[in-house]
Design a protein that fits this description.
- This protein is an alpha+beta fold.
- It is 35% helix and 24% strand.
- It folds into two domains: 128 residues, 2-Layer Sandwich (Enolase-like, domain 1), CATH 3.30.390; 64 residues, no CATH class.
- The protein contains seven helices and nine strands; from the N terminus they run ααββαβββαααββαββ.
- The longest helix is centred in the middle third of the chain and has 22 residues.
Protein backbone atom coordinates (compact mmCIF):
# COMPACT_ATOMS: atom_id res chain seq x y z
CA UNK A 1 0.00 0.00 0.00
CA UNK A 2 1.36 3.45 -0.92
CA UNK A 3 2.00 5.91 1.90
CA UNK A 4 0.75 9.43 1.33
CA UNK A 5 3.41 12.12 1.00
CA UNK A 6 1.89 13.98 3.95
CA UNK A 7 2.48 10.91 6.11
CA UNK A 8 6.08 10.64 4.91
CA UNK A 9 6.65 14.25 5.83
CA UNK A 10 5.76 13.49 9.45
CA UNK A 11 8.69 11.07 9.84
CA UNK A 12 11.86 12.62 11.21
CA UNK A 13 15.26 11.12 11.95
CA UNK A 14 16.19 10.37 15.54
CA UNK A 15 17.88 13.45 16.95
CA UNK A 16 20.43 13.65 19.78
CA UNK A 17 19.20 14.98 23.10
CA UNK A 18 22.23 17.23 23.48
CA UNK A 19 24.50 19.32 21.32
CA UNK A 20 28.03 18.05 20.64
CA UNK A 21 29.37 20.54 23.17
CA UNK A 22 26.85 19.47 25.81
CA UNK A 23 27.67 15.83 25.16
CA UNK A 24 31.39 16.50 25.46
CA UNK A 25 30.90 18.34 28.75
CA UNK A 26 28.61 15.59 30.05
CA UNK A 27 31.13 12.88 29.29
CA UNK A 28 33.94 14.96 30.79
CA UNK A 29 31.82 15.33 33.94
CA UNK A 30 31.38 11.54 34.11
CA UNK A 31 35.11 10.96 33.75
CA UNK A 32 35.75 13.57 36.45
CA UNK A 33 33.23 11.81 38.71
CA UNK A 34 35.03 8.50 38.22
CA UNK A 35 38.36 10.12 39.03
CA UNK A 36 36.94 11.68 42.19
CA UNK A 37 34.99 8.62 43.39
CA UNK A 38 36.97 5.59 42.38
CA UNK A 39 40.20 4.54 44.06
CA UNK A 40 42.72 1.87 43.21
CA UNK A 41 40.65 -0.60 45.20
CA UNK A 42 37.79 -0.12 42.72
CA UNK A 43 39.86 -1.36 39.77
CA UNK A 44 41.32 -4.72 38.88
CA UNK A 45 44.24 -5.21 36.52
CA UNK A 46 43.51 -7.92 33.94
CA UNK A 47 45.80 -8.54 30.96
CA UNK A 48 47.50 -5.20 31.58
CA UNK A 49 44.29 -3.14 31.59
CA UNK A 50 42.28 -1.66 34.47
CA UNK A 51 38.63 -2.70 34.74
CA UNK A 52 36.06 -1.29 37.18
CA UNK A 53 35.04 -3.73 39.91
CA UNK A 54 31.67 -4.17 41.61
CA UNK A 55 32.50 -1.57 44.27
CA UNK A 56 33.20 1.02 41.57
CA UNK A 57 29.92 0.45 39.77
CA UNK A 58 28.02 0.65 43.07
CA UNK A 59 29.55 4.07 43.76
CA UNK A 60 28.64 5.24 40.26
CA UNK A 61 25.05 4.02 40.75
CA UNK A 62 24.70 5.92 44.03
CA UNK A 63 25.85 9.25 42.64
CA UNK A 64 23.75 8.94 39.49
CA UNK A 65 20.69 8.05 41.58
CA UNK A 66 20.21 4.67 39.89
CA UNK A 67 18.00 1.97 41.36
CA UNK A 68 17.93 -1.65 40.24
CA UNK A 69 15.86 -4.81 40.46
CA UNK A 70 16.17 -8.43 39.38
CA UNK A 71 13.81 -9.23 36.52
CA UNK A 72 14.79 -12.86 36.04
CA UNK A 73 16.99 -15.43 37.77
CA UNK A 74 17.19 -18.88 36.20
CA UNK A 75 19.31 -21.83 37.30
CA UNK A 76 20.19 -24.56 34.82
CA UNK A 77 21.60 -27.84 36.18
CA UNK A 78 23.64 -30.10 33.91
CA UNK A 79 24.44 -33.79 33.79
CA UNK A 80 28.09 -33.13 34.70
CA UNK A 81 26.85 -31.89 38.13
CA UNK A 82 27.76 -28.29 37.36
CA UNK A 83 25.17 -25.53 37.02
CA UNK A 84 24.69 -22.05 35.61
CA UNK A 85 22.81 -19.03 36.91
CA UNK A 86 21.41 -16.60 34.30
CA UNK A 87 20.48 -13.21 35.69
CA UNK A 88 18.56 -10.29 34.17
CA UNK A 89 18.79 -6.97 36.05
CA UNK A 90 17.12 -3.65 35.27
CA UNK A 91 18.73 -0.34 36.25
CA UNK A 92 16.49 2.74 36.40
CA UNK A 93 17.50 6.42 36.34
CA UNK A 94 15.62 9.24 38.08
CA UNK A 95 14.31 10.44 34.68
CA UNK A 96 12.63 7.06 34.10
CA UNK A 97 15.13 5.70 31.59
CA UNK A 98 15.92 2.01 32.06
CA UNK A 99 18.74 -0.30 31.03
CA UNK A 100 18.81 -4.10 31.06
CA UNK A 101 21.86 -6.17 31.96
CA UNK A 102 22.02 -9.90 31.22
CA UNK A 103 24.81 -12.11 32.56
CA UNK A 104 25.63 -15.67 33.53
CA UNK A 105 27.96 -17.49 35.89
CA UNK A 106 28.92 -21.14 35.68
CA UNK A 107 29.96 -23.26 38.66
CA UNK A 108 32.85 -24.70 36.62
CA UNK A 109 34.46 -21.34 35.92
CA UNK A 110 36.79 -21.55 38.91
CA UNK A 111 37.08 -22.79 42.47
CA UNK A 112 34.37 -21.00 44.46
CA UNK A 113 34.66 -20.82 48.26
CA UNK A 114 30.88 -20.92 48.78
CA UNK A 115 29.65 -22.58 45.61
CA UNK A 116 25.87 -22.09 45.78
CA UNK A 117 26.05 -18.51 47.01
CA UNK A 118 29.05 -17.37 44.97
CA UNK A 119 27.78 -18.52 41.57
CA UNK A 120 24.42 -16.79 42.11
CA UNK A 121 26.04 -13.63 43.49
CA UNK A 122 28.58 -13.44 40.66
CA UNK A 123 25.85 -13.71 38.02
CA UNK A 124 23.93 -10.94 39.82
CA UNK A 125 27.04 -8.73 40.09
CA UNK A 126 27.81 -9.10 36.39
CA UNK A 127 24.24 -8.36 35.30
CA UNK A 128 23.87 -5.39 37.65
CA UNK A 129 27.22 -3.88 36.65
CA UNK A 130 26.37 -4.37 32.98
CA UNK A 131 23.03 -2.56 33.43
CA UNK A 132 24.75 0.32 35.24
CA UNK A 133 27.51 0.46 32.64
CA UNK A 134 25.07 0.51 29.74
CA UNK A 135 23.15 3.31 31.45
CA UNK A 136 25.93 5.75 32.38
CA UNK A 137 29.36 4.29 31.60
CA UNK A 138 29.30 3.72 27.87
CA UNK A 139 29.00 -0.05 28.19
CA UNK A 140 32.50 -0.65 29.57
CA UNK A 141 33.10 -4.24 30.67
CA UNK A 142 33.31 -4.94 34.40
CA UNK A 143 36.21 -6.72 36.08
CA UNK A 144 33.88 -9.57 37.08
CA UNK A 145 32.99 -10.20 33.43
CA UNK A 146 36.63 -10.13 32.39
CA UNK A 147 37.47 -12.63 35.12
CA UNK A 148 35.23 -15.16 33.37
CA UNK A 149 37.29 -14.79 30.20
CA UNK A 150 40.67 -14.90 31.96
CA UNK A 151 40.07 -17.52 34.67
CA UNK A 152 41.13 -21.07 33.72
CA UNK A 153 38.13 -23.37 33.92
CA UNK A 154 37.96 -25.79 36.82
CA UNK A 155 38.06 -29.06 34.93
CA UNK A 156 37.08 -31.36 37.78
CA UNK A 157 34.19 -33.71 37.12
CA UNK A 158 34.46 -36.22 39.94
CA UNK A 159 35.25 -34.10 42.98
CA UNK A 160 38.82 -35.43 43.12
CA UNK A 161 41.88 -33.22 43.45
CA UNK A 162 43.05 -31.82 40.10
CA UNK A 163 45.72 -33.82 38.30
CA UNK A 164 49.16 -32.25 37.99
CA UNK A 165 49.02 -32.44 34.21
CA UNK A 166 48.70 -34.91 31.38
CA UNK A 167 51.50 -35.74 28.96
CA UNK A 168 50.28 -37.78 26.01
CA UNK A 169 52.47 -40.41 24.38
CA UNK A 170 52.88 -40.11 20.60
CA UNK A 171 49.65 -41.02 18.79
CA UNK A 172 49.38 -41.25 15.02
CA UNK A 173 45.80 -41.17 13.77
CA UNK A 174 44.80 -42.85 10.51
CA UNK A 175 43.42 -40.87 7.59
CA UNK A 176 40.52 -40.64 7.88
CA UNK A 177 40.05 -41.07 11.63
CA UNK A 178 37.73 -43.94 12.55
CA UNK A 179 35.56 -44.69 15.55
CA UNK A 180 37.42 -47.90 16.51
CA UNK A 181 40.73 -46.01 16.39
CA UNK A 182 39.39 -43.31 18.73
CA UNK A 183 38.16 -45.94 21.18
CA UNK A 184 41.47 -47.79 21.07
CA UNK A 185 43.45 -44.58 21.53
CA UNK A 186 41.37 -43.57 24.54
CA UNK A 187 41.84 -46.99 26.14
CA UNK A 188 45.58 -46.77 25.48
CA UNK A 189 45.62 -43.36 27.20
CA UNK A 190 43.82 -44.71 30.25
CA UNK A 191 40.30 -43.41 29.65
CA UNK A 192 37.46 -45.76 30.61
CA UNK A 193 35.54 -45.84 27.31
CA UNK A 194 32.46 -47.09 29.15
CA UNK A 195 32.10 -43.53 30.43
CA UNK A 196 31.88 -41.98 26.98
CA UNK A 197 29.90 -42.43 23.79
CA UNK A 198 31.67 -42.11 20.44
CA UNK A 199 29.14 -40.89 17.90
CA UNK A 200 29.86 -40.85 14.17
CA UNK A 201 28.47 -37.88 12.27
CA UNK A 202 28.76 -36.68 8.70
CA UNK A 203 32.09 -34.83 8.89
CA UNK A 204 33.31 -35.60 12.41
CA UNK A 205 33.25 -37.85 15.44
CA UNK A 206 31.64 -36.58 18.64
CA UNK A 207 32.75 -37.92 22.05
CA UNK A 208 29.99 -37.47 24.63
CA UNK A 209 30.35 -38.00 28.38
CA UNK A 210 28.08 -40.73 29.78
CA UNK A 211 29.58 -41.42 33.20
CA UNK A 212 31.56 -39.56 35.84
CA UNK A 213 35.06 -38.92 34.53
CA UNK A 214 38.07 -38.59 36.79
CA UNK A 215 39.99 -35.35 36.53
CA UNK A 216 42.83 -37.14 34.73
CA UNK A 217 40.44 -38.73 32.21
CA UNK A 218 38.89 -35.31 31.62
CA UNK A 219 42.27 -33.70 31.00
CA UNK A 220 43.36 -36.60 28.80
CA UNK A 221 40.32 -36.08 26.58
CA UNK A 222 41.12 -32.38 26.37
CA UNK A 223 44.77 -33.06 25.56
CA UNK A 224 43.86 -35.61 22.88
CA UNK A 225 41.37 -33.17 21.38
CA UNK A 226 44.06 -30.47 21.29
CA UNK A 227 46.62 -32.84 19.77
CA UNK A 228 44.22 -33.79 16.98
CA UNK A 229 43.09 -30.18 16.45
CA UNK A 230 39.56 -30.93 17.57
CA UNK A 231 37.12 -28.75 19.48
CA UNK A 232 35.69 -28.93 22.99
CA UNK A 233 32.40 -27.53 24.28
CA UNK A 234 30.77 -27.59 27.68
CA UNK A 235 27.05 -27.32 26.87
CA UNK A 236 26.63 -30.15 26.24
CA UNK A 237 29.94 -31.59 27.40
CA UNK A 238 31.53 -33.05 24.27
CA UNK A 239 34.69 -33.30 22.19
CA UNK A 240 34.65 -33.17 18.38
CA UNK A 241 37.27 -34.65 16.05
CA UNK A 242 37.25 -34.14 12.31
CA UNK A 243 37.66 -37.21 10.13
Amino acid sequence: MMVESTELASFKPVMPLATPEEARKGWAAFEALKTALLTGDDYQQIAGKAFIKRSGFRKIAVYFGLSDRILEAVRVDREDKNFTWRMVVEAKAPNGRTSIGVAMCDSAEKKFNHLEHDVYATAHTRAKSRAISDMVAGGVVSAEEMEAAEEPRRQVDSGQAPAQGVTLPPITPPTPITGPWIKGALEQLGVDTGKVEIREELAEFVILKKGSLTDEEFKTLNAMCDRLKGTYSRQPLQWKLKR
